[in-house]
Design goal:
Layout (H helix, E strand, L loop, with lengths): L1 H44 L8 H26 L2 E3 L2 E3 L2 H15 L2 H17 L6 H25 L1 H13 L9 H20 L1 H10 L1 E5 L2 E8 L10 H29 L5 H4 L2 H18 L23 E3 L18
Parallel strand pairs: 4-5
Antiparallel strand pairs: 1-2, 3-4
Helix pairs in contact: 1-2, 2-3, 2-5, 2-11, 4-11, 7-9, 8-9, 9-11
Length: 338
């Protein structure tokens, strides 16, 4: 009776050990599936009447890579052990593929940030305007080049795998890379926003009290009443800063608070989760606001077209204070839509 009980315990232990990686794989599939659904929701909510830009193409490529990762690990998880093109795939390739993607995503934050910044600066200054089809091809091949470059770096750097091997020796779990780039990027943006609050606190309070809400072209809009002698060209960075801040926070305040919580609690999020489309659009809006602020002397709010942000409309003009009913204006000078 004792021997039978011992065998039963041993069998249950072996069964538990066999099912443990499978449960981990199922959890990983559910996480990536949730991320893909979030990507689809974000892409579906964005404005469609925006100009071509680098960040749009990169977001679509990121959604495609996430989908490709989900298909690969789902197939491996289902068949468990199979041979394809002479290569044997097992459940351990699920961990390997996810680690490679984590390293790749983790190293992409700085390059994407810099290229998007250069792209917006060139588009704003209009130093080199390419034809529409050439511009699409340029963005397409730029995105492919970035992915290939980072993949080659990740697969060719031996220090990455030595680090990963050391972690695997001390743990039976599959460790994932935590990106330091995203941490410092998030820290920098939150710090800048905090400094803006300190330097423009009184202007922000005054502007918030002056905000009016109305309906224009079937959209809820916010506009700022100003004296009729206000200029249509913004020449002061101090004047533009609180308006850009309110417009940015009108859309991204929950995301800013989330970043503050993550930084304060020092939450470690795997890179394959942290690099997502909502995060990229958040960075995108921050970059656009920064470019507009640095080029405020070129910003003619009556003529310039600012449809480059899928979530924030930066075209905020100033309605004269004497006009109280926006519906009576044939062509409003400017509107800020949040």
């Amino acid at each position: 009776m004792t021997a039978l009980s011992s065998e039963n315990c041993s069998f249950q232990y072996q069964l538990h050990q066999t099912n443990q990686p499978l449960d981990g794989n199922c959890l990983l599939i559910l996480i990536i599936l949730g991320k893909i659904l979030l990507n689809i929701l974000t892409l579906g909510m964005r404005r469609k009447n925006t100009y071509q830009n680098f960040m749009e193409y990169f977001c679509i490529s990121l959604a495609f890579i996430d989908l490709l990762l989900l298909v690969n690990i789902s197939i491996i998880s289902y068949f468990r052990d199979f041979v394809l093109l002479g290569i044997r795939f097992t459940k351990y390739h699920i961990c390997l593929f996810t680690q490679i993607i984590s390293f790749t995503y983790g190293f992409l934050h700085y390059p994407v940030f810099l290229i998007a910044c250069i792209d917006y600066y060139l588009n704003f200054s209009k130093t080199a305007k390419l034809p529409f089809k050439c511009q699409k091809l340029f963005y397409f091949f730029t995105v492919i080049l970035i992915w290939i470059s980072v993949f080659v770096y990740v697969l060719g750097d031996p220090s990455i795998y030595q680090n990963q091997k050391a972690q695997n020796v001390s743990s039976y779990q599959c460790p994932f890379y935590i990106s330091i780039q995203s941490y410092w990027l998030s820290f920098s943006m939150v710090t800048i926003l905090f400094m803006v609050f300190i330097t423009s606190w009184s202007e922000l309070i005054t502007l918030v009290k002056a905000i009016r809400i109305t309906s224009y072209l079937n959209e809820t809009v916010l506009y700022f009443p100003f004296p009729s002698h206000s200029s249509y060209t913004v020449s002061s960075k101090k004047t533009l800063l609180p308006k850009l801040t309110i417009c940015f926070l009108g859309t991204w305040l929950p995301f800013v608070l989330l970043q503050v919580i993550i930084l304060l609690l020092k939450v470690q999020i795997p890179a394959y989760i942290e690099m997502n489309i909502p995060w990229l659009y958040f960075v995108n809006s921050f970059l656009i606001a920064t470019v507009y602020w640095f080029n405020c002397h070129k910003l003619n709010l009556r003529d310039i077209a600012l449809s480059v942000d899928p979530f924030v409309n930066w075209k905020c003009c100033f309605i004269p204070l004497a006009i109280h009913n926006l519906d009576h204006i044939e062509k409003p000078i400017s509107i800020m839509i949040c």
